Amino acid sequence: DIQLTQSPSSLSASVGDRVTITCRASHSISSYLNWYQQKPGKAPKLLIYAASSLQSGVPSRFSGSGSGTDFTLTISSLQPEDFVTYYCQQSYSSPPTFGGGTKVEIK
Amino acid sequence: QVQLQESGPGLVKPSETLSLSCTVSGGSITSYSWSWIRQTPGRGLEWIGHIYTTGSTNYNPSLKSRVTISVDTSKNQLSLKLDSVTAADTAVYYCARRIYSSGYSYWFDPWGQGTLVTVSS
After folding, report:
1. Long-range contacts for B39-46 (Cβ within 8 Å, ≥24 apart)?
2. From the CA of B95, how many Å to the nearest CA of chain A?
3. CB-CB under 8 Å, B104 with A91
4. What is d(CA B83, CA B59) in angstroms, rounded to the nearest whole number?
5. B56-106, pLDDT tens digit by residue?
6. Degrees, nearest 5: CA angle B87-A102-B42
7. Which residue in B60, B107, B113 is closest to A43 by CB distance?
8. Which helix (H) or strand (E) holds B94?
9. pLDDT tens across the length of chain A (107 residues)
């Protein structure tokens, strides 16, 4: 199975900060990487697909980049509703796997 | 827009079969592929399996011997059966639509709200 390692596992930031979350794959996965946001007690919600494509309805402050083994999710200016948990997921090989998550907390 | 809602027992005894349903509204279940995914604090998000529009299935090798995913088109429902459960199967179970793009590119959207299943005697 392809392992996805997210870093950091948690981070503290303030409203308005620019934040970057990294997802590293154990093998090259081209651009077959998606990002999800999960609020407490809710299901994950798709933010970014195919590494850099913004899902419809998702604010433009979210962006994704990367290919191969290294990917990033960037939030350009943190808003209060963004202090939740983010996951990456690869679709390159079966089984699809998820990263361990990054929790963004208020500083 | 498509919405998904899981349902089923919240408590299952060890060695018994976990059975969940996922009702799809806002669209035909035959138009897309569907997945089950579970989440635990210890193992995080774990993909269980897909069922494709053809009716064929693909399961996580770690669960393959115990899992069955099927579709009831008359009810627009997806179902999950997991046999011989143990405490390790305690999790929040989600159904999700699998959106395929091209090549190996696919993603899960939307997801149901999830249902907690506890395995305990």
Report:
1. B39/B91, B39/B92, B39/B94, B39/B114, B40/B90, B40/B91, B40/B92, B43/B91, B44/A87, B44/A98, B44/A99, B44/A100, B44/A101, B45/A44, B45/A87, B45/A89, B45/A98, B46/A98, B46/B91
2. 10
3. yes
4. 14
5. 999 999 999 999 999 999 999 999 999 999 999 999 999 999 999 988 899
6. 10
7. B113
8. strand B91-100
9. 999 999 999 999 999 999 999 999 999 999 999 999 999 999 999 999 999 999 999 999 999 999 999 999 999 999 999 999 999 999 999 999 999 999 999 99
Cβ separation B105–A55 shorter than 8 A = no
> What amino acid is encoded at A40 in this protein?
P
